[in-house]
Amino acid sequence: MVLTTAAFPARAIEAEDSLPDLLRGLDRASRLYLDSVLRFSCDETIRESGLKQRIHKFNYIFIYDKKKGFVDYRTATAGAEHPVDPAKIGLRYLERSYFWVLLFHKTRQPLHRYKIEGREVVSGREAVRVSFEPVKPYKEKLNDWAGTAWVDPDTYQLLRVEAMTVEDHAAFVQMQEDRVNASHGRAIPVSRWVAVLESVTTDFSVEKNRMRFPGETRITLTQYVVPFGGRPLQKKDTLVLDRTTQKYTHYLFFGVRTETEVQDIVSGAGESSSSP
To answer: What is the span of the domain harbouring residue 26?
Structure first.
């Protein structure tokens, strides 16, 4: 599933694009994230472009606690001790932008269906486009998203992810079917004439020792209208109602493997035993 039109058209699937091989590489990359790499802090700027037009700045921290394991939280300023919950001040945001990497960990692969869709150029690199869809039963923060990931086939690093929650994804698919049916004059229930859906896009644009980290996440709230009476689609039938942007800068890593170690792990020459 692709929610937006990519800058370059998809190329035919390469002969060497093997889904099992790709998933093995993505698993190694996900375990690398759960290794010493995921101990960092960075600055996070959340900008609302809708009616509120607000800008919020946080220090985002991800560390390992001996009692709690991996812990992440936000503070209002660097060095502050008290965590801040953006949801409590009414922000629409993605809690963990690196979460997408974990969708490809071997323990979560049985909870999803994957399909290689082709190749496209993303962020100046040719990438394998792979769709993912959760398998029931859905569990929050485990397998409740469906979408598309663009993967660097040389390093198995994510370049971009576009996704929706399973509920919005189902409504998105239904809306597309309704638009086709409406164009053929078929009746559509009034309850499905308008759909307001949320989509999320994360770009992994920050690099450290050949590891890629989230640089920006965009959360878009879009209104879709099914044409009445079989009329053609118009520009107003798809309207962006709100967009929130989360930008990540000034990464500080408390522990990160060397470029050689990263290369060995993603190529399969080394292994990491961490689990999500």
So the answer is: 19-267
Tens of pLDDT, residue by residue over 231-250, are: 888 888 999 999 999 999 99
Single-letter amino acid, residue 56? H
Q: 232 preceded by cis ω (within 30°)?
A: no
101 HSE (CA, 13 A, CB side): 26
- Using CA atoms, how far apart are residues 111 and 269, in angstroms rounded to an integer? 27
Pairing of strands 125-134, 145-151: antiparallel
Cα 121-202-160 angle, rounded to 5 deg: 25
Phi and psi at 262, nearest 5°, equal -60, -45
Question: The whole model's pTM is what?
Answer: 0.86
Buried b (16+ CB within 10 A) or exposed e, 208-238: eebbbbbbbbbbbbbebbbbeeeeeeeeeee
Number of residues in the chain = 276
- Domain membership of residue 115 (yes or no) is yes
Q: Identify the CATH number of the domain in which residue 199 sits.
A: 2.50.20
As a whole number of angstroms, the distance between CA 81 and CA 241 comes to 36
Residue 194 lies inside a defined structural domain of this protein: yes
- Asked if residue 48 is part of any domain, the answer here is yes
Number of domains in the chain: 1
Between the CA of residue 71 and those of 41, 46, 74, 78, 95, what are the distances in Å? 12, 21, 11, 17, 12
Query: Using one digit for the tens of pLDDT, what is the confidence trace for 112-131?
Result: 999 999 999 998 899 999 99
Q: Structure tokens of 141?
A: 């923060």
